[in-house]
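Q: You know discrete backbone vocabularies at least as well as I do. I have my own habits and do not want them to colour yours. No explanation is needed for now; the record alone will do.
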Amino acid sequence: MRIINAPSPLPDAPPIRRWSSGMEAMDAALGGGLAHGCLHEIYAAEVGDGAAAAGFTLAAAMGMCGGGMGGARPLLWLRSRRAVGALGVFQGAGWAELGGAPDGGLVGVVGDTMGLLRAAVDGLRCAALGAVVVESWGTMRELDLTASRRFALAAEQSGVPLLLLRVDAEPSPSAARTRWQVSAAPSCALPQAGPGDAPGAPCFDITLLRQRSGPSGQSWRLEWDREKCQFREALSGAVVPAPLDRPAGDRAGKRHAA
């Protein structure tokens, strides 16, 4: 009689760690929130939306790092020199205004694209970081499918998420888990602002252009809550236009294909 040993069952894959953004509908579409240990792409809808895309990226990165002013892991933000020339110098006061702790982050400016990509991979290999952001301007031929796979593998091994911020660029095939489009949206006036109608929390129009193994195409308008370090659904009655280069009534913008 032959005795055949049954193979041992494979261990269950560890659950994916996710950051709950505070927006229930968005978190549900993402299977519980934005996944750590993955590559996420964030595109500005138009060049004039670069600042809004950067603000959304910083907010999401701070959330994934573990919160605002205390107890968070460090954030590494890598910029190309071209991005610095186009979008300006990083200001600690602006970082703090969004609820972050500027002394809990490191900003690096890299002169060439290959150096930027190498620095990103090195950063992803440091499991002590909460998140890595790579900010670029324009088309980068070096950032091809192979380079994005290298990012995804390094992020998976360390558990550190990479947020790839693209301005003045078109989406291309990549290993990203999610791809987003961000445009500026008008803030809502604070209830106690009085006749001056002072603007409220930063507000963004976002679209989930693509998600690997999940639904896509949904759009939301979000406000950033700096105290909770989470997003919330924007209220109606917005009065202050945020885009720099088009009238408040023009909300169509340019929509990138997935």
